[in-house]
Amino acid sequence: MGQQMFKNAGIEYGGIKSLTPKESKEVVEKGAFILDIREEEEVRYKALDVANVMFLPFSKLREGYKDIPQDVSIIVADSAGMKSRDVAGFLKDEGFDEIAYMAGGFREWELDKLPVTVDVDEQLSGSCFCMLKPQRKLRKQQKRKTGK
Questions:
Q1: pLDDT (tens digit, 9 = 90+) per residue, 107-137?
Q2: Sequential DSSP letters for 39-98
Q3: Contacts of 34 (CB under 8 A, 6+ apart)
Q4: Across the chain, how many H-helices and E-strands are there?
């Protein structure tokens, strides 16, 4: 299934296919799954809007990868394509043979204007990276401070 699923898509590097976001969407429409390894706070704000998405944050990958079905074709996706190739390699080493990764990650998915769901209440905001909080939490804090 998987080798056939990815046969006419992407470029192979070290035995693992690299797919563009558009290729990833096309393969998902044929039955593959995207494994979104972004952290929970990222996914709550913006998510891939396709039917076959599994979510397993990178921080929980080591203990959670055994729950990923091995009988489906999987495309690993992260925020910017920095971790997905390594995760695809890790999964291949763990016995997943129908595996690819999405080059450019979620960022490229958005730039290609592919379907995304957005929850504005979960948008992160703050004066520096260490202080990022979802918008809904910031509004609650502001209401407490101002009494409005």
A1: 999 999 998 988 777 665 655 545 455 555 5
A2: -HHHHHHEEE-SS-EEE--GGGHHHHGGGS-TTS-EEEE-SSSSSHHHHHHHHHHTT--S
A3: 24, 28, 48, 50, 52, 53, 54, 74, 75, 76, 77, 102
A4: 7, 10
Give CA 132 to chain center in angstroms: 20
The b-or-e profile of 21-49 (16+ CB within 10 A means b, else e) is bebbbebbeeebbbbbbbeeebbebbbbe
Q: Which residues pair with 34 in a beta bridge?
A: 53, 75
pLDDT in tens, 79-96: 998 999 999 999 999 999
Domains and CATH numbers, the chain: 2-118 (3.40.250.10)
Please give the DSSP secondary-structure letter assigned to residue 117. E
User: Per the structure block, which two tokens stand in for 42?
Assistant: 């990222």
Q: How far apart are alpha carbons 28 and 52 in whole angstroms?
A: 7
Query: Smallest Cα–Cα separation from 76: which of 68, 134, 26?
Result: 68
